Amino acid sequence: MRPQRPPDGRLMQRCYERGSTIAKLLLLALLLIAPGCGNASRPGDSAPTSANAAHQAWVAALRAGGGDAALALVDPAMPEREPFAREAVARMREYLTSPASPTGALEGVTLEPVVDGVGRSVWQFAQKRWCYRAELVRRDAGWYVSRWGQTSVDCQ
């Protein structure tokens, strides 16, 4: 076995050049991908075309803790849409992640079909079952959430 010798300057230069090339390629890929990110947070961009799709996307955004995704689904005509989305996401994040949450772990969410602009979801936690009601409104570009909250009506 030959003793290892410290790398000479040429080897270090080649490693630096390769690393630089990879970094440039990664930066280029990021620049090509990034313009498409965040577009969904603007009202009217790729809004769900059905009330059921809007309801499903809303529940998915709340489960994932996606503030931007939730905001994109809030009625563009709502005056306080950002605080509304932020509070809904924060409230569900607390239930889903806080060790002090009275609910326990989330076991599943069942979505009921939207009827007359109202969608219901049943959130089954280890220690509780909570039902939520989402009111949806149709705007020119699609369907949006206009109200959201817990309900005890027909919560089974």
Kindly identify the CATH topology of the domain at 43-151.
Nuclear Transport Factor 2, Chain: A
Number of helices, where a helix is a run of at least 4 consecutive DSSP H or I residues: 4
Report the radius of gyration as a whole number of Å. Answer: 24 Å
What fraction of residues sit in β-strands? 15-25%
Indicate the percent of residues in helices: 25-40%
Please tell me the CATH architecture of the domain at 43-151 by its name.
Roll
Provide the residue-averaged pLDDT: 79
The helix/strand class is alpha+beta
Net shape: globular
* Strand line-up in the sheet with most strands: 1-2-3-4
CATH class category name of the domain at 43-151: Alpha Beta
**Ends distance:** 73 Å
Order of helices and strands: HHHHEEEE
Number of strands: 4
Described by strand count, sense and barrel closure, the largest sheet is: 4 strands, antiparallel
Low-confidence stretches: 23-44
Brief sketch in words of this structure:
This protein is of the alpha+beta class and 156 residues long.
Descriptive account of the structure:
By secondary structure, this protein is an alpha+beta fold. The protein has a four-stranded antiparallel β-sheet, with helices on one face. The longest helix is centred in the N-terminal third of the chain and has 25 residues, at 9-33. The chain is globular. It contains four helices and four strands.
